[in-house]
Request: fold
Amino acid sequence: MVLESVWWAPAEDGRPAGVGYVDQRAIPHEIRRERAERIDEIVETIATLAVRGAPAIGIFGAYGVALARELHPDDDAAYRTAAARIRGARPTAVNLAWGVDRVLAADASPLDEARAIHDEQRAVDRAIGEHGASLMPERGAVLTHCNTGPLATGGSGTALGAIFAAHAAGKRLHVYVDETRPLLQGARLTTFELAQGGVPATLIADGAAAATMRAKNVVAVIVGADRIARNGDTANKIGTYAVAIAAAHHGIPFYVAAPRSTIDFDLRDGNGIEIEERSAGELRAVAGVRTAPDDAAVYNPAFDVTPGRLIAGIVTEYGVARPPYDESIPDLATRPAFGLLPR
Ligand code: MRU
Reply:
């Protein structure tokens, strides 16, 4: 069973239209379905990570712009101001800006365009899953970081989609899941989704990743991405860079799986990627329980940038891009829109 993470919620029973979502903060304790009916709520849902994961916030943001049009049918200035607020809710995942901009620029109605983005993501995820599965071993241990499954994408997942597709094809994988401090997307969401999909998995502390590579004979690492530069430098959840360094030390291939919409073709390298810094409170407490002095100084970047030279392959809906990324990534910009490709 795949949980739909975001959806358009039409006006009904006296309620206005809105954007529906599963509140990812409540998982695994509860599957809480909510609905944002105001632009403030759209922005807050993204900023608080109730909806998170680069493709999912792209789709949610796109539906948010459709909601803005419903709220301001005759006021273009208010519509555009609302769209700009949604676009700025989080800075690192380029999918959010991409989704908002695409709806704003579309000839189709905002809602039709948002629905098209969502439909395309489902098809894109299936393709990423198939290409990524081909990189997975016939059997053995693989490691992942953060959460890249259906909750994070609105489809079937990217890196986790590749693991699911490999499992479905009969590959016997065991997944080691980094807990992913500070917000525990790995512990809360990835272990939940892998259990739902029947894929054997073991949760590890982030600090155990290198030791696990050695002790458990990890043969591949696969993660998602929030923004990829033209040279392959990849922003992803904080801790990914350390995993890539550990994988390089152990001679383990480190793969990134992400849709083309996660590539920022305007960026030459990762130095230009804005890294979101989040509140000190996220590090001074775990699940609401204080774990550090109130006044402890905190540095809390939500993402880091893994240099392209540490990445063995970048899986998109078009296949596996290989180094030199300076050549293979710009080539992806020239491909026709995925939905238009002959199958
Ligand atoms: O802060 P988050 O939870 O939105 O960060 C998510 C990640 O870093 C994911 O790995 C990335 O968005 C890819 S989701 C398919």
User: Anything to note?
Assistant: The pocket of MRU is lined by residues 49, 52-55, 93, 146, 148, 152-153, 158, 185, 224-226, 236-237, 302 (CB under 6 Å). The radius of gyration is 19 Å. The longest helix spans residues 110-133. DSSP finds twelve helices and 15 strands in the chain.
